[in-house]
Amino acid sequence: FAAPLLQGQKILLTAGPTREAIDPVRYISNHSSGKMGFALASAAASMGATVTLVSGPVTLPTPTGVQRIDVESAQQMFDAVMAHLPEQQIFIGCAAVADYRAATPAASKIKKSQDTMQLQLVRNPDILATVAAQTPKPFTVGFAAETHDLEQYALDKLQRKHLDMIAANDVSVAGLGFNADDNALKVFTKDGCHELPATDKLSLANQLLTLIANYKN
Ligand code: PMT
């Protein structure tokens, strides 16, 4: 009988949101629940892969057989990914990483005073682009969460970040994407596009990993 599709493969995944501290009690974040990334981790383990999952703050149980590393901020996610990157064959960036963080998080709680206040933000490191720039580099898969011009932005990210594949989701569609149980993906490589229509995230994860396994070989 045939070996599981990802037998012997080492896969590193990111999932969930990141939290960027403003002060000890407040943060900047987004609506990612981790469901899509955890479904990918679970499906990859079922397909025979050795899976390391770097997760932002979520409320999901660790999938069976998966090594999980919990982080909060984008910088911590970056550090955990880089520490575990050697010897990985596949990297999938499913986390919704904050692009910016507070330039100088306050050491104590910010008290209200003026009617308006300004918060200076600085760019976070791009985990996905940094992984794709390594030599040797794992087969690198990004996600693109877009509300408009999905294909154009996804193709731009594929080329600009030197990815092998990008899975784009339209996060403006009700019932799909952020925090939903279902999702739909348009998967782009330099050779073309595969549409994975709306279904539950575990089924979608199985389909995406099958595409990755077949395309990679
Ligand atoms: O978690 P769920 O509730 O299940 O929702 C799933 C999801 C919508 C979060 C997921 O399917 C998804 O689209 N994840 C990527 C979200 C995102 O941040 O997309 P982006 O277009 O901003 O980022 C593009 C890619 O660069 C992503 O692979 C992201 O992980 C990566 N990135 C972004 C910024 C950064 N500093 N480092 C990164 O690695």
UniProtKB/TrEMBL annotation:
Binds 1 FMN per subunit. It catalyses: (R)-4'-phosphopantothenate + L-cysteine + CTP = N-[(R)-4-phosphopantothenoyl]-L-cysteine + CMP + diphosphate + H(+); N-[(R)-4-phosphopantothenoyl]-L-cysteine + H(+) = (R)-4'-phosphopantetheine + CO2. Pathway: Cofactor biosynthesis; coenzyme A biosynthesis; CoA from (R)-pantothenate: step 2/5; Cofactor biosynthesis; coenzyme A biosynthesis; CoA from (R)-pantothenate: step 3/5. CTP binds at G93, C94, A95, D99, K109, P125, D126, I127, L128, F143, K157, K161. GO terms for molecular function: FMN binding; metal ion binding; phosphopantothenate--cysteine ligase activity; phosphopantothenoylcysteine decarboxylase activity. Its EC number is 4.1.1.36, 6.3.2.5. Its cofactor is Mg(2+); FMN. In the N-terminal section; belongs to the HFCD (homo-oligomeric flavin containing Cys decarboxylase) superfamily. In the C-terminal section; belongs to the PPC synthetase family. This is Coenzyme A biosynthesis bifunctional protein CoaBC. It comes from Shewanella fodinae. The chain holds residues 210 to 426 of 426 of the full protein.
